[in-house]
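From the pipeline queue, job 12 of 40. The input is one protein chain; the requested action is below.

Action: predict structure.
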Amino acid sequence: MLPQAESARNAGHCCRRRKDDCVRRRARGAMHRRYLALCIAIGCLVIILGCGAGAWSIQQGQIRAPSGSAQVGNLELIAVTVVEFSTMRPPRSYYTVWVALRNDSAARSPAWRPLVWARRLMRLELPPPARTR
């Protein structure tokens, strides 16, 4: 065979090999994107189920509800347990989570500073506390 014909034949084979590599690389990239999407979906599902299980456990009295506040810039997240007393019925306790927007972002702003905006995120009725003798 002539050297020119052989080099032309190898050139075609080389181009085919490059196309095959390119197709494989694209397939691997698509596979990685699928794995990434699957991992993100599983992560979101775990977070949603964890939040739901936590809220259910607090409402059933299996775990004690955390109280406190966290502030990031002007945004503040407040979680409190409130007990409502009445002369007509036994006391009820509620676990409430609020999100609020403050005027300033001072790290330790006093509680009396006015809020620009506040919204209750959730309110769970807690079981009555066990009586101790």
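Job complete. The mean pLDDT is 77.
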